[in-house]
Amino acid sequence: MHLTILQNHGKPNFNIPLSVTTPIIFIAPIILPASSARGEDLEVRVSAPATGDHLPIIIFAHGYGKSLDEYAPLVNFWAAHGFESKLH
Q: Which of 12, 45, 47, 83 could form a disulfide with 28 if both were Cys (CB 3.0 to 4.6 A apart)?
């Protein structure tokens, strides 16, 4: 089984083999100070495979009313399959 990642116009970009996983590391929360216009600091979670370099990156913005922890299983899944994931 594979998970297909789509990009522009629904064309397949690459497949993630679901049966292959790797240990992950994560850092959360990382606090990015807000500008005066934003008014609220930005909390970010970074999850990545424990090894590897030149990793593809997924930046995931979860929307209003959710916390970093609610989507942790999703970004950890991506990290376990070779992606560096940034959740904010």
A: 45
